Amino acid sequence: MQENKMEQNEVENAAPETEAVKEESPKAEKTDKKKVKKLEEELAAANAKAEELNERYVRMLAEYDNFRKRTAKERDGIYSDAYIDALTNILPVLDNLERAEGCEDAEALRKGLELTLKSFRDTLEKMGVKEIDTAGPFDPNLHNAVMHVEDEAYGENAIAEVLMKGYQKDDKILRYSMVKVAN
């Protein structure tokens, strides 16, 4: 009997704990729901931020592509304009040569060619093109040696003869001077 009483006391004592657990369970569910809701809100905020960053990235990529296309078009336009300017400067020389084509007087033709040559040199000068100096010693950066001659009349590495004049614009070589080098 005493065992029955003890069991009954244990059951009675256990009952309030079970009820307490049952009472805490709705609170725990509310807390879990709050945590889940908070995490869902954070996830939604993170997704919105990721979407915003992705949209910014896509826009920046499109802007870069437009910039690249625009600069390529501008570069082509600048090249085309420079090319046209150069040809426009040379056309008067062509006009003078065409006028000389019908000339039968040798002296007038010679004078016309001299004037045309002067006009062409002036045009090149206006365009910034200069003749490469061949008065000094041979310089492989400016001259192209196509012949070599041993001659005591010239010094070491001296240019003995200019076979074809060279030209440069600023620091860029358009054509190297073709020369004969002595010693």
Summarize the structure.
The protein is of the alpha+beta class.
Q: What does this protein structure show overall?
A:
A three-stranded antiparallel beta sheet has the order 1-4-5. A three-stranded mixed beta sheet has the order 2-6-3, with no helix packed on it. Residues 14-22 have low confidence and may be disordered. It has 183 residues and is α+β, with helices and mostly antiparallel strands. The chain has helices at residues 2-101, 106-126; strands at residues 129-131, 143-149, 158-164, 167-169, 172-175, 177-182. The chain is 66% helix and 16% strand.
Question: Keywords for this structure?
Answer:
3-stranded antiparallel sheet, 183 residues, alpha+beta, elongated
